[in-house]
Amino acid sequence: MTFADTPIPLKIVASDLNTLEEVVFEDGKLIDAIRASISIPGVFRPVINDGHTLIDGGITDPVPVQVLAHAGVSKIIAVNTIPMSTR
Q: Which of 1, 47, 60, 75, CA to CA, is 20 to 30 A from 35?
């Protein structure tokens, strides 16, 4: 399947291991984007794509609501399950 096959628009976020910048997938094969976005260091190897070494998007942004806001989504419901440090 590709992003064009999805019934609603979809974006998948990964992180560039070298620059710690977000890489947003919105076209191409879904499997490639999913594999990059679940690459947890020490568990799944990083994915090399278009000159980027990609790992889990949660490394740089655990709840990437800005990706949706930049796409013009006006109502976003999100839950952050990562505990915040109280230090």
A: 75
Spatial contact of 45 and 38, defined as CB atoms under 8 Å apart: no
Instruction: Give the whole-angstrom CA distance, residue 23 versus residue 84.
Output: 24
First to last CA, the chain: 44
**Strand pairing partners for 2?**
29
DSSP 20: -
- 29-41 b/e (C-beta count within 10 Å ≥ 16 → b): ebebbebbbbbee
Residues 3-35: pLDDT tens digits?
A: 999 999 999 999 999 999 999 999 999 999 999
For residues 36 and 23, the answer to whether their CB atoms sit within 8 Å is yes
